[in-house]
């Protein structure tokens, strides 16, 4: 038997805020919609920025991508602050459990020495790359247009910082502060890392927010994450007895699987908007992914040696297929 | 088996350093100027970004964990509030006018702060301040969203909330808060931090946040007070950041002092004007009052602000230039505002009203030096007009101050019977101001303030062309529903009918 509690029934006067009714019809709006659509000022901006008087405070023309409605670039995860934070908090618990599993069982000490050295050599300088990604996504959030596009970028930036911090913890667990110092020296001076550092700095000099989105989130991370975390950590290191490392980087693998859906959705909608957009996106993706591949190759060689070329070729093929699904022919 | 060499134990501070500061590097493929182009033009000199002291040490994993906990609680409570018709627990639906102003003017400001902090979180060339600013950036979008979510249920039942996104950009009084935040965001990264991080978040936020959230608690608004409690620990972090910023800048170079002092002077006055609306909320709009605006000023302005500027005196910082003018206006501003809101209530998406006899007794007691002399007689006159069926409405357009964009309704600091009015001619145009403070702000940066979008001239341009009905359409104001006197409003009727339904058996 069903028992319904009774409450005083009052007829609502309206279903949703006007701007949401105009977009989605006269029905209750979701919290994602309420927290994302049209909450950026759109008209009657008062003053030109003193740091860039040729543009408006919010200015869609800062990128060469043109959208009739920037709010078309919906995040399929429908992340607003709350759903974002709850999702990461769960993953964080999982990561914490993995770290303490590795720590409490002394798994780090049991790693074969050569494998540990490889893991540190490949993974630790990446914390600097992740910090670069943080700045680039913060940039896209700052200079991009429309909340549904910019909002996930600040979440992504904080994720990039979180990943840099997990990598730092991994370094402290498998090595020591010396390992972090050595990794920073590699990042600054070792020839194997210079193409990647150059790539990151070139990104930081790029001031078209959408091109930067492509360069960092699609081209670089689209190659880096599967190559490093799937191919090198989960496959190459694990078969040699390094599953402990894979436990410590599980956050990164899961994160990549989740966030690529958002990135693909943004690219797909922007590319479908016009031939001009598609042309720009294809050009940027071609150019930046070719550079990303050559920047990552010497890093892959640190772990894979002569197999690096082949691994990279596989990644590039997979990347091309992914881009095709998003509507880009490379 | 080899002996393990014990690892060095890192202290908290060192550990946090590893997790943040050490992530950065000196670029070599591009110049620092190319990667951080906006950090020099304001003239602030920073010699060593590493001297930055992290105001809080929160790694992302800890951030996600704590914030998620707060989010769970917050949404559980506002869901329950919506489900159980929590709005019927309000002391009176009059109270909602304060919330409507908040949603139209302050929640958009939270979003603006989000974007502003994101920008400085990218443009500062030091990891420490970058991370601190980015965290505030993500907090600020949280605040915009939790406020919208907390008020969403009120929108389902009451007028005045439905068009906040349109009104943020178009209705006349929201341009006060909009221009304030646009002003800070269009400034350079250091000025933004002094404007929002220090002046607003540190010096003035208690005058906004505490009265508002306490007002919500006193008046049965569970949704808003829950937001307040939930945001409190974020605000504490933001205040720590604001204080760290100013100390850091001042310690870096003595040449920074005059620049910072000028910003403090400017932003104190800008902030004081924006917060003027809070005075009206505290003295007039809360059915159950927390304290008077004067009492709040004594605690959060005089005591806290006084202590702060005493502390900053060792850097050579003086209290804001217009502090005394602010102090002189305390006994008058809420009354002057409310009289303005009442006479222009045909053009506001919230209600105004004539204070009741009880309210006026309270105001006399709280403002012994001003209310009975200057303001009671006006309210009594307005009351008579309303009783005679000829309510006082001012269909003339308010003259807005070019800087703060409030109507020029304030009086001379030393003569409460004389309206204060200042003019400056710049490039053959005449500009009007409500005060010396606003005139000075303009004269220091005229090229900025002549760009201000002023809502009154807009009335005579396309698409409105001077037609009041067209204007209402353009600002999404529903005449007879959203505006006017509370006494004859739908909100009042509905609230009383629904409460009757909930509390009696009629």
Q: How would a crystallographer describe the biggest sheet of chain B?
A: 2 strands, antiparallel
- Count, helices of chain B: 21
Q: Total helix count of chain A?
A: 14
Within the CATH hierarchy, at the fold level, what is the topology of chain A?
Ribonucleotide Reductase, subunit A
> Which structural class fits the helix and strand makeup of chain B?
mainly alpha
CATH H level, superfamily name of chain A: Ribonucleotide Reductase, subunit A
Strand tally of chain B: 4
Morphology call of chain B: globular
| Gross geometry of chain A | globular
Descriptive account of the structure:
The complex is a heterodimer of chains A (about 325) and B (about 500). Chain A has about 325 residues and is an all-alpha fold. Chain A has helices spanning about 20-25, 30-35, 80-105, 105-110, 115-125, 125-145, 145-175, 175-190, 195-205, 210-240, 245-250, 250-275, 275-305, 310-325. Chain A contains 14 helices and no strands. The longest helix of chain A is centred in the C-terminal third of the chain and has 31 residues, at about 210-240. Chain B is mainly alpha-helical. Chain B has a single domain (about 55-505), classed as Ribonucleotide Reductase, subunit A. Chain B is built from 21 helices and four strands. In chain B, the strands form two sheets. A two-stranded antiparallel ribbon of chain B has the order 1-2. Chain B has a two-stranded antiparallel ribbon with strand order 3-4. The longest helix of chain B is centred in the N-terminal third of the chain and has 31 residues, at about 125-155. The model of chain B has no long low-confidence stretch (mean pLDDT about 95).
List the helices and strands and how they pair.
The complex is a heterodimer of chains A (330) and B (506).
Chain A: H1 18-24, H2 31-36, H3 81-104, H4 107-110, H5 113-123, H6 126-143, H7 147-174, H8 177-189, H9 194-205, H10 209-239, H11 243-248, H12 250-273, H13 275-304, H14 308-325
Helix pairs in contact in A: 5-13, 6-7, 6-9, 6-10, 9-13, 10-12, 10-13, 10-14, 12-13, 13-14
Chain B: H1 12-19, H2 32-35, H3 60-83, H4 96-123, H5 127-157, H6 164-170, H7 174-185, H8 189-218, H9 222-252, H10 256-274, H11 276-285, H12 293-312, H13 323-329, H14 333-343, H15 357-366, H16 371-387, E1 411-412, E2 415-419, E3 422-426, E4 429-433, H17 436-444, H18 446-449, H19 455-458, H20 468-474, H21 490-503
Antiparallel strand pairs in B: 1-2, 3-4
Helix pairs in contact in B: 3-9, 4-5, 4-6, 4-7, 4-8, 5-9, 8-9, 8-10, 8-12, 11-14
